[in-house]
Amino acid sequence: MNQSEEHSISIQEQKSKIRERYRGVDPDTLECLPARPPENIYDEDRELRVAVYARVSTDDPRQTSSYELQKNHYTDFVNRHPNWKLVEIYADEGISGTSLNHRESFLRMIEDCYRGKIDMIITKSVSRFARNIMDCIGYVRQLKELKPPIGIRFEAEGIFTLDANSEMTLSFMAAMAQEESHNKSEIMNASIEMRFKRGIFLKPPLLGYDVNEDGELVINEEEAKTVRLIFFMYLYGYTCQQIADQLTALKRPTKKGNLVWNPGSILQILQNERHCGDIIARKTWTPNYLNHKSKKNKQDRNQYRRYGDHEAIISKDDFVAVQHLILNAKYGAKGLLPELHVISDGVLKGFVAVNPRWAGFKAPDYNAACRSVYEGNDSIDSALMPDVAPGDFDLRGFEITRAQFLNPRDKPYILITHKLLKFNLIALQKFQNIDYIELLIHTVEGLLAIRPSTKEKRNCMKWSRLSDIKKVPKGIGSAAFIPTLYELCGWNPNYTYRCLGQFHQKGEEMVLVFNLKEPEVFIPTSEDRNSNDTQPRSDYFGSSSKSLLAYPADWRHTFGNNFYHQSQAAEMAAFSQSQEWNTQNEGVPYHTEHLNVTPPDKAREEIHQIIQDITQEEPYERVTDR
Fold first, then answer.
1. Which domain of life does this protein belong to (predicted)?
2. d(C-alpha 41, C-alpha 55), whole Å
3. Mind giving me the DSSP string for 459-488?
């Protein structure tokens, strides 16, 4: 007998044994032990401790009737069953059913179930219990698994959760309740959008204003004194903490009548555009209708701003100036109204001074400032292809090898990350014993320059520190400016960039110029790369131990720039001319906005006058220290 035949016989024997086994045994040898019958909640012989859950979704007084009717109905309902004992009516009023947030009575009821105080819960409907399917099914299962299990009776749907076939029906009803909430949320959002499009905004109570019978904001003169005092003090140089302390000492009430102030409430008042007469709708939005958590609207939804909606307490220019001061204070710049300065002549013409702590200026502001000093035929681009004279070497077909390919570590460079700027030791040594520098940028040429500075100048940066009695480079934190620099250069914020520099000196004048248009790029290795990074690696080549060292794709087929283009490159051409360098020229102000801001002396007078009106005494001693 071959193996195939043996295998066929073996399978037939297995099948025969299975058939024999499933014919069963002699019924006389078996005894059935009956299961306990399903629980009958109406069994008169068993006492049940019953809890009732009631909920209404708003605090509207008209909902009070629904709330009271639910309580009265279920009190009578429980009393009609002599074997039921009412533990408590757990009720949440003015609470949404899509989230457990703030549903204190609901959570307390669940806790009492775990403590063994409740045998059964009765509620009007699935939507009263929960409009979130996960919460509804989750708590039903948790209560069913307790020993003894606790059931929930949904009166409207006729569902009792301890019934074996209840979960499918309950899941369907819970899904319907959740979808109903979703539809209501969408309808409400659409209604809000239509109102905002027509300039119909919500106007809640605000310090300095009352709401009249037409729903419009009108100035409350007594409260407006507090608002003016806050703005003038901040313009004069006080911090939010100092202003809060001053208002607390003066016993000035908040809108809610509190006499103790904190810096957060001061900041909210300073940032509220309604004090200058405008109104912005939809500053926040709610991404998830289930948890109701709002988040700041960062162009996720349409915003609407109405100018001149109501009478202003603070001038528009003062309000804008305060916003600049707040933004810059975030990065450590205090008491200075930001202003761009651009150099109008000399070898650094068109360069804009950078203050690392000013965040109020964006890429278009730096571009406009750079171009503002060039007029008519005064071209920005200085690199031109020359004509070759007869007998001279024609080097137009030759390239100068890029320094990046010739050990760039021996040359001055700047390393730029999304957090800081850092120069190498070679760059530091070029400036010898200089501890402070000033950073300048030429946005059109794509150049970054540094020149010596002093500690007293407001744009100065400390770029060195002592290490073992030797000066070494120090990282310069510039979170306020670096995002703008990345935007100007079109860089990926997940990458680090290294730009080589050219050092120029004429007598005591020194300047380092870095080319931002030809950077080396360090791309994090795969295990460190940001998941949002979509830059294709095929555009680069090269590698290093910790990251991928990359170069622009158009470098693949060249060793460097054309000889004449390189010799007249912007970072070199200006310094080869015989004109005066004037590298320490101060920049001229470039105003991105022409603001008529209350000057410090005037602000101080206003502060004194307002406090005098409040206290009916001379307050000068109270406001002289900042």
1. Bacteria
2. 24
3. TEEE-EEEETTEEEE--EE-TTTHHHHHHH
Element housing 4 (H / E): helix 3-21
Point out the least confidently predicted range of 176-185, 273-282, 456-465, 514-523. Answer: 176-185
Residue 238, Cβ neighbours under 10 Å: how many? Answer: 23
Side chain identity at residue 588, one-letter code: V
pLDDT tens digits, one per residue of 607-623: 999 998 888 744 434 44
Q: How far apart are the first and last CA of the chain?
A: 108
Reference 178, options 130, 141, 219; nearest CA is: 130
**What distance lies between CA 542 and its chain's CA centroid?**
35
- pLDDT (tens digit, 9 = 90+) per residue, 182-224? 777 777 777 777 777 777 777 888 999 998 888 888 999 999 9
In this predicted model, which residue has the larger pLDDT, 111 or 409?
A: 111
What is the average pLDDT across 423-437? Answer: 89
- Long-range contacts made by residues 150-153, C-beta under 8 angstroms, separation at least 24? 150/113, 150/118, 150/119, 150/120, 150/121, 151/39, 151/41, 151/120, 151/121, 152/120, 152/121, 152/122, 152/123, 153/41, 153/120, 153/121, 153/122, 153/123
Does the domain spanning 209-329 belong to CATH 3.40.50.2000? no
Q: Is 1 helix (H, G, I), strand (E, B) or coil?
A: coil
Dihedrals φ, ψ of 240, to 5°? -60, -35
Tokens (6 digits) for 2: 């071959």
Residue range 48-181 in CATH 3.40.50.1390: yes
- Please state the φ and ψ torsions of residue 624, each to the nearest 5 degrees: -90, -25
Strand partners, 217: 211
Nearest to 454, CA basis, from 434, 440, 480: 434
pTM of the model as a whole: 0.56
Q: pLDDT, tens digit, for every residue of 30-53?
A: 878 777 666 665 555 678 899 999
User: What is the residue extent of each domain of the chain?
Assistant: 48-181, 209-329, 352-374+398-588
Question: CA 212 to CA 310: how far, in whole Å?
Answer: 12
Cα 417 to Cα 226: distance, rounded to the nearest angstrom: 43
CA dist 451 and 459 (Å) reads 11
Q: How far is CA 29 from CA 25, 32, 556, in A?
A: 8, 10, 89
Task: Compute, in degrees rounded to 10, the torsion defined by CA atoms 581, 586, 592, 594.
Answer: -140
The number of angstroms, rounded, from the C-alpha of 381 to the middle of its chain's C-alpha atoms is 39
pLDDT at 25: 75
Instruction: Determine the angle formed by the axes of helices 221-236 and 263-271, rounding to 10 degrees.
Output: 100
pLDDT band, very low/low/confident/very high, at 400 (cuts 50, 70, 90): low
Q: Is residue 398's pLDDT more than 60?
A: no
With beta carbons less than 8 A apart as the criterion, state whether 425 and 522 touch: no
Does 48-181 match 209-329 in CATH topology?
Answer: no
